[in-house]
Each structure stands twice: as structure tokens, then as C-alpha cells.
TrEMBL record:
It is an enzyme of class 2 (transferase). It catalyses: L-seryl-[protein] + ATP = O-phospho-L-seryl-[protein] + ADP + H(+); L-threonyl-[protein] + ATP = O-phospho-L-threonyl-[protein] + ADP + H(+). Its EC number is 2.7.11.1. It holds the Pfam family Pkinase_fungal. One of its GO terms (molecular function) is protein serine/threonine kinase activity. It comes from the Eukaryota. InterPro entries: Pkinase_fungal, Tyr_kinase_AS. Residues 78-453 form the Fungal-type protein kinase domain. This is non-specific serine/threonine protein kinase.
Length: 553
């Protein structure tokens, strides 16, 4: 590394210590001029930015030793972090304030590049977890005499390609300085919420004919994504506990959750839609990138944190098809999780009423498509809706009419633990994806019911089990394990029913018969959905009648 009056040159053998020498030189000779009002140029260094408002917004620092960062349960060592400009190096770094991440390595081979990318991916996932509304994150890696710039968002990671410092040193210098001069918007930070006292404030402007509404929210989300490649669903509860503000990334093509909610608005057994708007599009930061000669970097999914799907199996799509929009929705959500059931009766009625809501939704041309215990809530009946169980989350719904079209049904989407066996069979055998049907959703309700009977024990200190082996990492194992349990239902599944739910074994056997036939191996979806809905709801009603003594027609 050497410098002349106005030129900085990085020599070929660049490594961590010398990189920091150069960074400190660059900071002292150039960047420090931008701390506060523009001053006279420093001696032997011309002022290279003279625009008003070009002061530094953030600063970089070295994590000098392995330490536990706030917001993580493991020790980490990050070569370079970019924090807000008022951050003191004596403080413990926090993921919720990190703006940019950089990594250095002496070697420049393929293995080193992959290792640093995986390390960056881990850091980025932690940043997104701490900043769930973050839109994208800038990163970079420096390998000996080469560097690579990255931008991560909810669709994946995009690279500049490996560049030689000797050939394009100006690009590297420009990138480093740009990171420190970027506005919050250019850094990908959330701009859609504001802080008033201890509460957050969200103003939803209302799309189409929806009203403009303002909500005071608890700044700590009740739902936040844990993976990197995801729809980024993040939910905030309002201070009055009456509503939820939900953020989610969705395709710009076809129908969105907003369209489905508007159609489902009058349906009993569904949450009440209030208003919505669009916040941002990924094309705003990816739109200027040229993918004409882009190559996909194929990494093994077993070792890649951003590809490991524990809830949803996400499709791999071309960068040209990755334009997503961040939407914001307000819904009235007066309810409790299904797992919060206080009695067996409350659990049964909640599941039955959610199935009734599913049938009404199906009658209006919408298939929910992602039935899980998390998408069924308990609620109190109202004058408009006597339901005690509601369906929520239409993020992965399927439109069954020309006016409600999506492309989600071409991919294996759903919550693994509750996914229908027929869909798992098709994918594990490498066949084409089978479209979702009402029968698949009703089968998922069956798995929700079984989960409650096995995992929701109400008596303290009673032994309980779980069905997590339906969520193993290998798809083929999921299919085999679940199929084995259904085929040996009484010996494996019914045996696990906990004391509070043991009286529901007959209902479980009846539901299995309706869905899979006598031997547990009947699949397929009858054209007429009414008989299967009728038999399942009748079976729930019969069991509820036995508990309450009240007859349901």
C-alpha cells in the first residue's frame, strides 16, 4: 500500500492488517473531512466531495476479537461492521444497528470465496432477524488482491463478480466510501414506521378504495421471519390489542393476499380485513442491475443457511422474475393461538369452525393452501360472526377463478409438518408438482387436530409427545415417516394421545377413514367437495355433542 498526493494504490498482497492500514489512511485523509460541516481540504489531499448534505452518516470499525454480539447466542468475529455514526467502538455491537458487513481473507481460491459467502449469509440472516423490515443489505469480501461486492435481499444474493483491485481500484474505493455516505433508503433500512415514545406509529395510506388508517403498534413484532429467503412476514400488534399490522413480500405478478382478503371480507370464519398499501419494490434496488450475462452460483443446500427451509419450500427463480413488492396490511385479529386452548371442547370447536370457514372460503373461489396450527386462532363470537375459530394468513392461497390467479401452485409451498402426503409423494419421486386441492387442505386440518391431541396436553406434568419427526431435513424421510404413521395409525399415533385428549381417539379414527379409506392408502380428490366437508364436519359435531349434550344440525 502506498500513497501519493491524490492517489491511493493497493498492492497485490493485501491482507487483513494492511487493509486496515489503508482504511485508516483513507478515513484520516479523506472521510474525516465529512464529519460535520465541510471544511478546508487537508494538506496534500484535495477535497473530493463538496456537496451540502454529504456528511458521513455511518462509520466502520473492526471487531478485534471473538465476542458475543447482542442478538445472538454464539460467539462471532466480523472483520468489518458499519454502524451509525454515533456508535462508540467501546460499546458492544448489536445486529439491529448494523448497516454493512465486510469480510477479509488472504487467499482467493474458490473454497475461500464460498466460505466467506456462507459466513456473510449467516451474518445477513442475523441482521434480517434483528431488523425484520430491512429491505436489503450491502456486503463485501476482500480476497488478497481481489474483492467482491454483494447485495442481499429476500429473494437471494447478488454479486458484482470477483474484481481485481489492480484493474478497478476506483470501483473498490468508490464502494467503501459510498457505504459511509448512503442514506437510510440507500442502505435498505425501513422507512415505513416512526417512533413516538415507546410505541411505533404506522400510517397505512390505503390502496384503491381502502381507507387511510393510523395505528399505534408495539415495536416488538409478534411474528418475524427466521430465514433469509422468505416472504419476510412480520406482524406487529396494535397497542389496543384489537388489530395486527402485517408486512409481507409478494410477487408483483398475479393476485396478492390483498386481493384474496378483499374477496374473503364477508366470509364468516375469516379474519376481518381493514386496509392495506404497498411500501416498496425490490426492483428499486435491483432494477439497474444487468442480468444479461448473469450466472447462477449453485451451492449445496445442505450447508447453505439461506436455502434451508424449515417451514416453506421456496422455489428457485430467475433474477428476471424476482421483482417483489412489500405490502402492508391491517387486519382485525381478536384471538389467541390454537395452542392456547383451555379445554378440549374449546380446541374442538375452534378447529371445526375453522373448517367451516375454509368451506365458505372455497365456495367463494379461494383455496387457503397453507393450513397449519399457526393459521388457526381462537376467538369470541360476535354479532356478525358466531365462529369461535378463525382462519388467518392467505399468503399462499390459490385462486380458483380467472380473476384470482397466482403462480404459487407451481411450487411445493406449505408448512411441512401439515403438508398432505400426496404432495410429498409427488416431489419425493421427482414428479411434477401436483396442484393443491380442498382435499389436501382438509388433510392438513387432520394433522392440526392430531398435533393438538398429542402436543397440547392440558394437565400439568403429564407426559406429552410431539410430531417433529414429520419435519426432518430430508423430504423423503418426511414422506416415509408420515406415511408410516398413517398406515400404523392405532399403534403409533393413537398411542401418543395425551390424557386430556384420549377421548378423541374415535374421532381421529373416523377422520382418517374419511380422508384415506379403510387401509389408509386412498389418495386423490373427488370432484364434488361437498360430501367430504359434510362427513368431516358431522364427525366433529357428533363429538362436540357428546361433550356438551347439545345437538348440532
Amino acid at each position: 500500500m502506498r500513497s501519493s498526493q491524490n492517489i491511493i494504490v493497493l498492492e497485490e498482497k493485501t491482507f487483513r492488517g494492511r487493509v486496515w492500514e489503508w482504511l485508516h489512511f483513507f478515513r484520516d485523509k479523506f472521510l474525516n473531512q465529512l464529519n460535520g460541516p465541510i471544511a478546508e481540504p487537508l494538506e496534500n489531499c484535495n477535497l473530493f466531495i463538496d456537496e451540502v448534505g454529504s456528511e458521513l452518516r455511518v462509520k466502520y470499525f473492526l471487531v478485534k476479537y471473538v465476542q458475543s454480539m447482542v442478538g445472538t447466542d454464539a460467539n462471532v468475529q466480523v472483520d468489518l461492521l458499519v454502524h451509525s455514526v454515533d456508535f462508540s467502538e467501546g460499546n458492544q455491537p448489536q445486529w439491529n444497528d448494523v448497516k454493512v458487513v465486510g469480510e477479509f481473507m488472504k487467499t482467493a481460491d474458490t473454497n475461500a470465496r464460498k466460505a466467506k459467502f456462507l459466513q456473510l449469509s449467516t451474518y445477513v440472516r442475523k441482521i434480517f432477524s434483528a431488523q425484520p423490515l430491512r429491505r436489503f443489505i450491502h456486503c463485501f469480501c476482500l480476497f488478497k488482491s481481489y474483492f467482491e461486492l454483494w447485495i442481499f435481499d429476500r429473494t437471494g444474493a447478488y454479486s458484482s463478480g470477483v474484481k481485481s483491485i489492480g484493474s478497478v481500484k476506483e470501483m473498490f474505493v468508490q464502494a467503501i466510501s459510498s457505504y459511509l455516505l448512503m442514506s437510510d433508503e440507500e442502505l435498505g433500512l425501513d422507512l415505513s414506521t416512526s417512533q413516538v415514545g415507546e410505541n411505533g406509529v404506522v400510517t397505512i395510506n390505503g390502496s384503491n378504495e381502502d381507507p387511510t388508517m393510523q395505528f399505534k403498534i408495539d415495536p416488538e413484532p409478534i411474528v418475524r421471519p427466521q430465514r433469509l429467503i422468505t416472504r419476510g412476514t412480520t406482524c406487529f400488534e396494535t397497542v389496543d390489542k384489537l388489530s395486527v399490522v402485517k408486512y409481507a413480500w409478494t410477487s408483483v405478478k398475479g393476485s396478492s393476499i390483498i386481493d384474496f382478503l378483499e374477496v374473503a371480507l364477508p366470509v364468516r370464519g375469516m379474519v376481518n380485513y381493514l386496509t392495506s398499501d404497498e411500501v416498496y419494490r425490490s426492483s428499486h434496488h435491483l432494477g439497474s442491475l444487468d442480468f444479461t450475462d448473469a450466472d447462477a452460483w449453485d451451492l449445496e443446500t445442505e450447508t447453505l443457511i439461506i436455502s434451508r427451509a424449515t417451514k416453506l419450500m421456496q422455489p428457485t427463480v430467475s433474477p428476471w422474475d424476482r421483482d417483489l413488492k412489500l405490502i402492508r396490511i391491517a387486519i382485525s385479529l381478536p384471538g389467541r393461538p390454537l395452542k392456547a386452548s383451555k379445554t378440549v371442547l374449546e380446541f374442538l370447536v375452534g378447529v371445526r369452525d375453522a373448517i367451516l370457514g375454509h368451506r365458505r372460503l372455497h365456495d367463494r373461489g379461494i383455496l387457503h393452501g397453507d393450513i397449519s396450527e399457526g393459521n388457526v386462532i381462537l376467538t369470541l363470537p360476535t354479532a356478525r360472526d358466531e365462529s369461535k375459530g378463525l382462519l388467518i394468513n392467505l399468503d399462499h392461497s390459490v385462486g380458483m377463478s380467472e380473476s384470482l390467479q397466482t403462480d404459487d401452485d407451481q411450487n411445493l409451498i406449505g408448512t411441512m409438518k401439515f403438508m398432505a402426503l400426496e404432495r410429498l409423494y409427488y416431489v419425493s419421486e421427482e414428479k411434477s408438482i401436483i396442484p393443491r386441492t380442498y382435499c389436501h387442505d382438509l388433510e392438513s386440518f387432520f394433522y392440526v387436530f392430531l398435533t393438538g391431541c398429542i402436543e397440547y396436553e392440558l394437565v400439568p406434568q403429564s407426559k406429552s409427545y410431539d410430531l417433529q419427526n414429520w419435519c426432518t431435513s430430508k423430504l423423503d424421510k418426511k414422506k416415509k415417516k408420515k406415511a408410516s404413521h398413517i398406515n400404523n395409525f392405532e399403534k403409533i399415533v393413537l398411542k401418543k394421545f395425551t390424557p386430556s385428549f384420549v377421548g378423541l381417539k374415535e374421532l381421529a379414527k373416523t377422520l382418517r377413514m374419511i380422508l384415506f379409506g379403510k387401509y389408509g392408502n386412498d389418495f386423490g380428490t373427488p370432484h364434488d367437495c361437498r360430501p367430504m366437508y359434510y362427513e368431516i364436519i358431522k364427525s366433529f359435531n357428533k363429538t362436540i355433542e357428546q361433550i356438551t349434550g347439545k345437538v348440532y344440525l
